[in-house]
Fold:
Amino acid sequence: MIKISPSEITPEHMFLSRRKLMAAAGTLAMGTALAACGGGGASSAEPAPEGVAAPSTVITDLPEALAHAEAYASQTTDELGGALNRYEQITNYNNFYEFSMEKEAVAPLSKDFTLLPWNIEITGMVNKPQTISYEDILKNFPQEERIYRLRCVEGWSMVIPWVGFPVGDLLKLVEPTAEAKFVQFTTIVRPEEMPGQQGRSFIEYPYIEGLRLDEAMNPLAIFATGMYGKPLVPANGAPFRLIVPWKYGFKSGKSIVKIELTDTMPVSTWMKAASNEYGFYGNVNPAVSHPRWSQSTERRIGENGRRDTLPFNGYADEVAYLYEGMDLQENF
Structure:
């Protein structure tokens, strides 16, 4: 089994400075982390474990896809036969720096995060800009299960039964103008509830990610409101997050409050933090190594050993056409 040390995952100067900071604070040494991926392979569904809060929602009339009392998925594997990760794994192993740089610390630190009221502003180059509430999202957009693989840029992966709806359905509602070419997604800033935003981070907040408009309109791209038949918990980006399964997990922003259509390529958070290592596209490509480690294999959470990484995370048939004529060795 290939082992990757924390200093190999994180730029050395960031790793050393963060280690000193955490030691001075009397905290545990940080685990491996750099990008913002979702949270971990066995197959059986199970209830939320103790210590992982259910969403703080007063909504009682949930759509059927989100109304399961116990963690539920219609299948036990993805379309390639990969076993679903357990609910407990997914909700307790998360990169969400707004709460912590420690994956296992995100769930307890986020359990009291306030989820309602929650509004999403949609603005920019659209004919019908508007602000829509989480409740209206659930009422007006049919929620469905999507079992997707999640591949983190750090070299680990999961299989997750998300619940959500296509990004394109929401964008069509606001009618993008002919000039719109890109979509920028912005995460909430709430330092009083998100300790990672309290001035100690090496990345800038709010967390920003972006897609080309044609990428966002691809049917595989979804806004997730739940997983395993239940509403998202804060550790996984509740109540409203992006999922782009053919890209590394840091492209799928969590707890989104603003969507802006523009004619200019957004400068994402990780492009600002490490422009020499993180570009705009972030497509899963086993042939292109990260500057400091190979992307040819991955560690599926819950399994021993490593498995081969698939181009576009196994979704090439659905998305490769988006990048025709591009140099796939340079689109990271």
About this structure: Residues 174 and 332 are 30 Å apart (CA to CA). Residues 1-36, 38-51 have pLDDT under 50 and may be disordered. The chain has one domain: 6-320. The domain at 6-320 is CATH 3.90.420.10 (Sulfite Oxidase; Chain A, domain 2).
